[in-house]
Amino acid sequence: MLQQELWEKGVSQDVFLGLSEIPGESDCKNLNLSIQSGELTEYSFKRFCLSYGLSDSMQSKESAAKFLEYMEGRLLAWIHLPIDADPTLLPLIVKIISELGHIVIDPDNMTPIN
User: Is the domain of 27 the same as that of 69?
Assistant: First the structure.
C-alpha cells in the first residue's frame, strides 16, 4: 500500500520499497550502537530476552531484531533508489512518507531524516 501511495504521488515506478523482516547482522550492529550510545542498555536487552525466552547473546540476530522492534518500532521497508536518481527524489519520498505518518531513518547514523 505504501509503495502504491508513492507511485500515485508521482514517484517513478523504478523506485521501490524493499520489505524485510528477516533478522540480520545489521540488527546486531544497531543493537550494539544503541547500547554504546546509551540509548538502550544491555541490562534491558537481557531482561527482554529472558521474558520472551530468547537468547541473550548480543550476537543473536533474532533477539537483536525483536528487541529493537520492541523498543524502537517496526521496520516497514528499505527505500531503493536507482543509481542515477535525481537528487530531489529522496526528499520527495521522505515528504510523502512523513505525510503518511511514518518516519524515515538514515541507515548510516540511525537518525530520522524527516
Answer: yes
Which of 1-10, 40-49, 68-77, 85-94: highest mean pLDDT? 40-49
**How crowded is the C-beta side of 12, counted as CA atoms within 13 Å?**
11
Q: Which residue has the cell 523482516?
A: 21
| Mean residue pLDDT across the chain | 88
Give 36's Cβ-side CA count (13 Å radius). Answer: 7
108 and 67 both lie in a single domain: no
pLDDT mean over 67-86 = 84
Same domain for 43 and 56, yes or no, is: yes
67 and 35 housed in the same domain: yes
pTM: 0.63
- Could you write out the DSSP letters of every residue in 19-62? ------HHHHHHHHHHHHTTSS-HHHHHHHHHHHT----TT-HH
